[in-house]
Amino acid sequence: MARKQQDAYRCSECGWTSPVWVGRCGRCQTWGSVVERDAPAPASVASQEPASKAVPIAQVSAQAVNRRLTGIGELDRVLGGGLVPGVVALLAGEPGVGKSTLLLEVAAQWARGGSRTLYITGEESASQVRLRAERTGALADELYLAAENDLGTVLGHIEQTEPTLLVLDSIQTVGAAQTDGIMGGSAQVREVTAALVRVAKARGMAVIIVGHVTKDGAIAGPRTLEHLVDVVLNFEGDRHSGFRMVRAVKNRYGPSDEVGCFEMAENGIVEVPDPSGLFTTRHDEPVPGTCVTVTMEGRRPLLAEVQGLAAKVRKEVPVRRVTSGIEFSRVSMVLAVLQSKARLRLFDRDVYVSTVGGARITDPSADLAVAIAVASALVDRNFPHKVLALGEVGLAGDLRRVPGLERRLAEAARLGFELAVVPANSRDRRAPLPGRLEVVEVTSVAQALGVLDLRRPNRRGAGDPE
User: Fold this and answer.
1) Given pLDDT bands bounded at 50, 70 and 90, which one contains residue 17?
2) Which residues are annotated as a binding site for ATP?
3) Considering the domain boundaries, does residue 124 fall inside one?
4) CB atoms within 10 A of CB 125
5) Which residues hold ATP (predicted)?
6) Structural domain total, the chain
7) Which helix (H) or strand (E) holds 250?
8) pLDDT by residue (tens digit) across 168-209?
9) Known binding residues
10) ∠ CA 81-103-277, rounded to 5°
């Protein structure tokens, strides 16, 4: 791009010039008078005859693009049925979450299907990737490996190898010599991604690139990166827990609200087609302070167990509120509703709320489960552990309807639950109840606690209501 002239901006009042725009003139001190000098008129573009004519949309062929399964069912579920030829997908996640392990397995499965695969690593040496592949069983004859950091060399490997799948780990470690900026910077990332998109579309080659994330969890690099690619996937998980989740954020060829579940094992990453049991604990006897709910991750219902503890404190010790796996502000709101609307005495109690198995619950439908778990711990009264609760709690103590209720109840019935407490008028009366599940509809938190007999303490001094 041509360099701007020395004095590109001029004050319309006194003629003062400046190389950069400023809001106030440096000579006459007039606000808003500094404007850009007259720029040359843009060159006119001559029209060209298109290679193919535009046709009515109803006449466009609706034949589906031939997809290719990756061999990993949970990833195919998120992608919408596999990889489309020419697709460019971005997989982002925190360091150590397992991005490279997952994509190495994808590359191996693709190669075992008889299609040539090229794995470019910019963060590790080829021998390091070879050792990990041997440990996870990801060795295949049609899987080619190269360690490169230059875009031109990467394109050369593509021409020599002619793969149908390219995996690049990662986009921040590859630079273009003809582009200014440091490797991993906005300009470099934009240029490398644009080049790979052009090659993918021209060759019909599927491309999966790994992207870094910032400390806030956002994808590192310019926002243009997410616009250039066809699919954006987030790889989520707590490094202290083996559970991992791939979530589709953008998908031009499938649903953008789907999730896939995996688990990190000693020999690599393993898909988990039925993850509900990971977020619940099995007790020989019912335990106070626990309640199960069903959250929706994309279009998949997942059972999650919420545990609560209400410990009495001395007067001189400040009351504490601690949460793990659930948003602190939502728990604080539920506790306030319990005290104001359900008349439970919580102002002199330390309250701890946690999920099981490292689950992170953001679904508001878990509010009622939090309330029941805390109330159960407060009055020290248990109820059958085959009970689950669904409902968003309002500030008036009312329960609001939750989406996808029928699908949640079907998942609970499949896992043997016998009683479900749900908001009133939220169930489709025409739909039959799944299995032997009994559904109790309530209008408020206080009514839900009454159904489960959690309004009075189990023994003296174990959380007297106000």
Assistant:
1) confident
2) 93-100
3) yes
4) 10
5) 93-100
6) 3
7) strand 243-251
8) 998 999 999 888 878 888 888 889 999 999 999 999 999 999
9) 93-100
10) 70
